[in-house]
Amino acid sequence: LDPGDQTNANPKNKIFLGATLMFDPFTYSLGIQYLSNLYGDDFGRKPLPDYALLDARVTANIAPGLSVYLAGENLLDRQYQVLYDYPMPGRTLFVGVNWAVR
Hints:
By secondary structure, the chain is an all-beta fold. The chain has no helices and nine strands.
């Protein structure tokens, strides 16, 4: 990416690799992203550390239109910032239900 002078929260390099496997009734997703050359201000001021995040999700399809999931973000518990002086949360787990009414 070429953010030009507008470098605030715009990484120069971002790589994402993801995979999804489906074994009915389960869906497994895994993703890793790496960001570098990130700044907390425009014109390349306030450089922020590079970071990599690992996320995963398992979804179980219970019935048509109904599923439950368990998801984890930042599973490696990395300390990182997207905005200067605003630390992002560590390891986070979610449990939820998706219900689609047709």
